[in-house]
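Example A, followed by Example B.
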Amino acid sequence: MQRPRLLPPLSRALLLCAALLPVGSCLDFQGYEQTPTLTTEVEDWRDEVIYQVLVDRFANGDNANDYRVQLGAPARYHGGDWQGLEDQLPYLQELGVTTLWISPVVKNVETDANVDGYHGYWAQDFTELNPHFGDLVALRRLVDVAHERDMLVIIDIVANHVGQLFYYDINLNGHADEQLQGNGVDSPVMYINEYDPDFDERGIQSFTSLGEAGPAPIIFGNDPATNHMPPNPAVFRNPAIYNRKGRTLNFDVEDQLLHGDFPGGLKDVDTSRCDVKQAFVDVYARIIEQTNADGFRIDTIKHVEHEFWRYFSQRVRQRLAAKGKRNFFMFGEAFDGRDDLVGSFTQKLAPDPSEHDCAAEATGAPALTGDQLDSAFYFPQYFQAVRDVFQQGQSTDRIQALWEQRPTTWGTEAPEGGIGIAPSDIPVNFLDNHDVPRFLYGVKDLSLEVQRRLLRNALVFLYTAPGVPCLYYGTEQELRGGNDPANREDLWDTGYDRSGGTFRWIARLAKIRKAYASLRRGDVAVTWASARVGDEEDAGLFAFERTGGTNKNSYSLVVLNSNQVHASHTGFEGAAMPVSAPPGLVLEDALSGNSFTVAGDGTIDVTVEAMSAVILVPAGDIVNLD
């Protein structure tokens, strides 16, 4: 049974009333008419377990906002909302989740080309919330209730583009056209879609039968039914703030990467402009000021100049800290396997006199430093460890090689005013997400038993590797959808079952991680990585120590076997694995209770079954988690 809402749904007019008129001029908002006091709710982000939620697909707690819902169509709205997420917080707490990452909250284009904006990445109005998910009261209450349960909330944002809000009037007739030109003999055949024309480095040009006629003007939509409307706030209605170069064809070309429209007609914003930088700081900082949420996950960061992220991250930190919100976490998504590229958004930028930092427009604001984001979504590890090793059984030495890069490819100093942790120490780790097939889809041709063993082994890696684990919603229910939108299933179809083996496995891993500080905050050292993948004695073995974190529970040793055929052990041709633990120390597996002893020469021999792992801690530190 769905419990009743505390308040009825608020119309846009009432939201504007609450925002613009004095207290007492509107309805009784039962305490939510006041701007919340911003608070700092987190000590160390490495202690957190993030759960990524696609709000529309998680839980439907308020039928009053169920419009345009088509449950049988994977690319349309399905009815999930913030009320439903609030209702299911006990489910998430039992799973061991401490932080919710929710999909974007601002008002979107309703539908485009028979696909809805249920995901949140097609912004139309940055000053209003998406009414499909609820109102400001519902969002604030979700944050408040989460905080009462010692949980945090991260909000997904986009600063690279807006939705499909205008077309290029290439033929100057005032209508959005699709046309074929050329006969293939005297002239090339060209297909032109004025909503999504191909990239032109000069900018999209207009032309008539007489030839080119200069830059094509843009015309904003005016269709309230699908919310193809001019954007808000007003700065986004200025044609000059868009790069207007058309659809990116090759992401390896820097001009297209940074200035092209995202395929599908998402219009690229000129993020080098001061008015754009300031507008994005204002609209997104204001959402935090209205809700008291705790962080941002930032979409498509590699499509935006580094100078923007320097400006945005620092000005947001400063504005929120002045009102009481510190340790505000900002991590970005660059869908790319190149660790140097992903990590570059966390490094300090060298001074560049050619960059305009908008200091003149920010009277009294501190001078900008080289700091950028606090962290990044660890896509290189997704490709090189999750996919290559834990799904495909490739050599584990590639994980070691990747981890050894991070001190040079990621920032090694905590950004000023940030979360107090060097970015290289806090990557955001994941097995899958809304942009890639689910983990189980990648191993769908194997037996169900093998699929589960591979998933649970990868989950041990996720919960023990340095950084913050991020679990994609539904992994605990063994969802197995392929590419978007098949990987965006309705969680309510599972009944939120808490008895399944994978749910219980994840909950246990969360308890283990919480019990042993070294698994959360400890330094890492790889103690064994293998180049072998066949029948060799150590094929598939990967081991690492975590040391430090607190004075107690300051040592752990994780050994994983990714080999899908046989048990392997931490030795090869007579060589044994050295560890930093003292000789004679008894280590106990927090998963099974089995014990291993460090030999007199400081080595340890650990045998691990295929597709399995051990989490070893000193026997004297063992905590009863039952």
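Example B, a separate protein, is given below in the same form.
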Amino acid sequence: MTRMPDVAMTAAAQAPSLTELPEWDRFVSAVRASAPRTEDVLDLVEAPGLTVDFSGQRHSDALDAAGRALLEVRGFDEQRARLLAGEAVNLTEARPAWHTALRAPDAPAEVLAERARMDAWVRSADAERRWRNILHIGIGGSDWGVRLAVSAFGYTGLWRQVRFVASIDGHAAQGGLAGLDPRDTLVVLASKSFTTAETLQNGERAREWLAAAGVDPRANFAAITANPERAVAWGVPEGNVFRLWDWVGGRFSLWSAVSLTTALAVSADVLAGMRAGAAAMDQHFAEAPIEANAPVRMALAGVVNRSVLGHGSLNIAPYDSRLAQLVPYVQQLDMESLGKSVDLAGRPVGVPTGPAVWGMPGTDAQHTFFQWLHQGSDGAPVDFILCRAADHHWPAHHRALLANCLAQREALMRGKTQEQARAECLAEGLDPERAGWLARHRMHPGGRPNHLIVLPRLSPYTLGALLALYEHRVFTQGVIWGIDPFDQWGVEYGKVLARGIVDLLAPDAPATDGAGRDSVDAHDASTRHWIGQLKG
């Protein structure tokens, strides 16, 4: 595993910018020459655990060829190999992004050992029926994946009650602790650095809550971190600290001991199944040719939709209520990874990059924002996700759910012309004048891009494959745009400013901290005003 950038990574940083490449110009031309698909075309790609229907995306032989040429000139094969081998692909932080190692059948010995230790710890807690309540404290990548897995596989109820506290808002901690029995509550702190302000401050409140009930806090804490010494110094017993590694990005850490809460809530077997599905998708990503490679083709479609067609957002529409938490999970994965405007050489990318990601499960979404998707002036590409088989006993419900998904997608693709809308109005008995007027309101533009992702059913294996599909799609788009999808420097700047402002908000805070590090005068007029208004 290479930790520092080598000659190959330096070369990547010095490569021509995207917009300087003739291959990019040919790609754009091929997109412009291809029409939105409204004809009777079926374009399916089979991948482990799922099928992706690309029939709703632009396609032509010229576009296929241009996509392959673009990937080649961007060194995609080499960059993919470096990612999967654990070499330094996170250039700005000079380290690997080796999350695939966490689910590989031949994972490094240290990964297998830590996995076995966590599984044994969970089995012991289960055998002794310990911890009726789990309070999971983490934020971002230490939170979303765990929420997703617990909600996906614990939706009918859990013998352990699980609550999540992420925000620094004191109401979140107060609500998370309310009504729990301190004697039978395990507090799980998940923080890669073990310096995350929100997590440690919420952890302090949980520690005070346990102590006030006469419970030794040390006995009721567990931690997952890449800095185990810091967790032990904070007060978590060494035997309750589980290891994360510096080469795992937070938003890719679901596959690690960050999912201790998942194992306690819905079993270590669920985690094992998710890892198996993700590992199978890793192999597909590594070996399938481009035309049959689901993550790569999704990435190319994403570049078409964002950088050429100019769609500013991507809608995630899971037609399965158990996947409600998939939306914020993909939102963080995509927007934290691809929310960049400079390439590896520090130059402006020159084209729009990561879209805003949003959504909610169908059919709720249809009654919320699908009007905008269908007839709004902008619209957005949509990833429809459904499960072929349900796990409840009401087939009529599932048929209706599937029908709604297929119908909404077909309407987005096919649209409705003004002539078709007018004919409908006339068939309803409207007079010709009103029919002509109303037809303009009832027409749909159609041709709106989308994917349909079909899982046989929601299982740990298929969910793991789905998440890895999105991971590799994001990585491939990063390669094409020439950006680093594994850092998040934009977030850090706000954190630095917050550390100074929080001291200035204290009721007895002086205008400066005495060391010249911050003062009210260092801020803009609006911020100065609100520091004064909110102080105390």
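On Example B: The longest strand covers residues 313-319.
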